[in-house]
Amino acid sequence: MSSSLRIAIIGQSNFAADVLELLLERSIFQIVGVFTIPDKGSREDVLASTAASHNIPVFKFASWRRKGMALPDVVAQYKSVGATLNVLPYCSQFIPIEVIDGASLGSICYHPSLLPRHRGASAISWTLIEGDEVAGFSIFWADDGLDTGPLLLQRQTNVEPTDTLDTIYKRFLYPEGVKAMGEAVDMVAQGTAPKIIQTEVSATYDPAMFKAENQLLDLQQSAERIWNFVRGLDSVPGAIATVLEDDGSEQQVRLFGAHIYSAGPVKGGQPLKLKGLAKPAWVHEGGLLIEGTDGAFVNVRRIKRGSKMINASDWFKQAEHQPITDFTDDELAKRTQLSGIWQAILKEPIEATTDFFAAGAGSMDVVRLVEEVKEAFDVPLENEHVFMAPVFEEFFDQLIRSLRQGSGDASAKQLNYEGFLLQANKREIRVPTQLFINGAFIDAEQQRTLDIINPTDEQVLCQVACASVNDVDKAVQAAHKAFFGAWKQVSPRQRGQLMLKLADLMEQHKEELATIESVDSGAVYTLALKTHIGMSIDAWRYFAGWCDKIQGNTIPVNPARPNNVLTFTRKEPIGVVGLITPWNYPLMMLSWKMAACIAAGNTCLIKPAQTCPLTALKFAELTVLAGFPPGVINVLPGKGSDAGQAVADHQLVRKLGFTGSTPIGKHIMKSCAASNLKKCSLELGGKSPLIIFADCDLDKAVKHGMSSVFFNKGENCIAAGRLFVEDRIHDEFVRRVLKDLRSMTIGDPLNRSTAHGPQNHKAHFDKLLEYCERGVAEGATLVYGGCRVPNLKGYFFMPTVFTNVEDDMFIAQEESFGPIMIISKFNGSDVDSVMERANRTEYGLASGVFTKDISKALSFADRIEAGTVFVNVYNKTDVAAPFGGFKQSGFGKDLGQEALNEYLKTKCVTIEY
Ligand code: NAP
């Protein structure tokens, strides 16, 4: 190999810089000079800086020629380095023949096409536009023609259907091109470099695509040619189409992300007229659909309007966004300050149209910009805001918008909704009363509404929208679109951050939420604060932590020798999830289910109980402030018989999470099977046994026994539905319970000293009256309550105690879901039969035992058929512990890690190698 090669590199950009680095690795060559373009502002080309870092002389010429003649001074400077070979890796300048022939061994030049095809500056674009099946590059000996010199080497690759100008360059033309330049120089050094004369057969010289007139997309051609043209200019500069607006005006746009569309007709698209196209194109949820002259379709995913890139599916939504024009002096001063930050990063003068990324910024620059802007303007900002608004003027517009909002939150939106002003608990709280679909509050179809009754005074509190079957469909479509669109773009960790932000907002608004919950459901305020809202917040925080820890396994399966096999599982979200919840803990039931569902990566719609939807609607407002993309969470108050049923029946809902009564649970399971075999989990009713042995700590047993029944006025799914009290302590237990009940404060749930509020709604209240009448009729002893609280308006039901309850009585078998204690005696010598009696129910939600005998306690835990077992405690649930019933109390867990699995599906992948 000749070591006397003295190389001049003439070119620019990363490609040339990489070729330079490669040649420097071959220490036998001498790089005697690098010739490149002048600096742009204060930013020099990367080839110049790479050369300077290796102490190679750098020459920056604006031009090598004037009026077709080589500039003598420039040629003299070139000659001064004494090169024996010119290497032109990527050169945009016209190099005079005096220089091309100025090196004794000549000049070798990289060209990104298989010459003689696609001579000219836009070879890669034309490779795609012409639908070539192979792409490639050539290294040729430069002569005085345009890409006509003899060939030294060529390399080729198949053009893939997914290729665009960007992909083919990045995956092949660039990396293989750099390597091949190194090989070509080696061949020159070894004297083995061929000079193969180019034939003129099949030669083309193609127009330069940097001229705007050449970028116009001709729509009068086949779908395939339209597709090839768009991908040939993707991502720079983009094919130009013209939108014809309804008012007769025209708007030029650029199209990106094209593919042939063969999925059949689109549903729910909106027509968009394009100049040169006889039939309208269609904006649909997957993009913009254009019909070619052959009747086939091209779909375009992204559109650039002005400097802003949008999803084509958002075309009609984006039209509403008007830029700010009325800047104040202070805002204009901020503009100057912002421009200074941009300039310091980009090292070039900043104009309104400066694009952060086109100016060469990388990911570290994004981090720096975000940090500096946050510090300078005291405004929260995320990296994604830079990606959403990469052009200076847009970025400034976005900054001013968030500063004007004053919330300090760049993602916060001004929420418009119809609501009512709740004045309670020394507060004024705005509560939305419309359906929440696709990130906005809207009326129900035909303005249908439901009356919301305050159980404390039986008055109408407000009216809320009542979802119809069509409204449910609208929400499902929004959730479906979000699942396959915006939500997919949110990484698991970002998902967790959104959930944490939501939990923080719930915490900030917890007094408001607890007040609404208390007024709407009758829950005592302090309990609402601690449990209804407190445990809801805990659930969001707990499941937020799971988002980036959902992982599969690698599984050692048997390989088919001699091959090896890798098998692994992926845990994937299911899709659109429907949630249906009851009225006893409205926000907590929502949160238990939805936090797990969202953490797993699903989108959802919830139909809360028709009697108490208000906290769910306030919660919906907070999801917007937290920054959840539209469609991920939808809230639809409505009736179970139509809206709830529509959720269970919907073909696009793939999982249903239900909490409610056993009869409705059975009905729903049938609907899930009949519609589309959707997965379901059912948290249903209970009749939980609590056994109190004489050897217990009686004070504790009375305290917990009381709360096992009267907590949340008995509207508690795990409420102890039946107490078995050992005969030796039975009377004393009853005496103490009655004593405590007589001192229980009943009244306004917002009053801090109240222990017992009104029942949730009238139908339920009436059922409790009937339940007690039946107990009396069957011969049980009513020792306390069993009736309305005298002289009190509202659904106030007396805490009630029945004794002498026999196993076959209705009240021994069926759930009351109210503040009714059902007590049966047992003899301490017959532990087996009390266990057997405790299991003699079709329910299996929870259970409890009070005893100091650890063997008895553990034996109970072994034998009881219930999803939850409490020992010497009751109602001790936690968001980290799985919760859910056995038998006709349903299946599937809420809470804990197990709840995640309810909202995930497992995919098994096997690879042979
Ligand atoms: P429910 O009558 O079964 O109602 C529950 C939910 O289902 C409500 O949103 C209801 O809408 C809706 N619904 C009614 N019919 C429907 C249908 N055909 N299709 C779809 N949805 C329908 O129960 P509830 O009276 O609200 O709640 C009390 C029951 O829930 C009790 O049995 C209690 O034990 C149980 N619960 C269980 C748990 C648990 O974790 N296991 C927790 C809390 C409560 P409407 O509002 O229009 O009726």
TrEMBL record:
The organism's place on the tree of life at top rank: Eukaryota
Gene Ontology annotations of biological process type: 10-formyltetrahydrofolate catabolic process; methylation; one-carbon metabolic process
Enzyme active site: 111 (proton donor), 683 (proton acceptor), 683, 717 (proton donor)
Residues that hold NADP(+) according to the record: 607-610, 640-645, 660-661, 767, 815-817
Residues where (6R)-10-formyltetrahydrofolate binds: 93-95, 147
GO MF entry, a single one: formyltetrahydrofolate dehydrogenase activity
Xref: SUPFAM superfamilies: ACP-like, ALDH-like, FMT C-terminal domain-like, Formyltransferase
Site feature Essential for catalytic activity, where: 147
The keyword Cytoplasm appears for this protein: no
PANTHER family: ALDEHYDE DEHYDROGENASE-RELATED (PTHR11699)
Family: In the N-terminal section; belongs to the GART family. Belongs to the aldehyde dehydrogenase family.
Name assigned to this protein: 10-formyltetrahydrofolate dehydrogenase
Species: Drosophila virilis (Fruit fly)
Organism ancestry: Eukaryota, Metazoa, Ecdysozoa, Arthropoda, Hexapoda
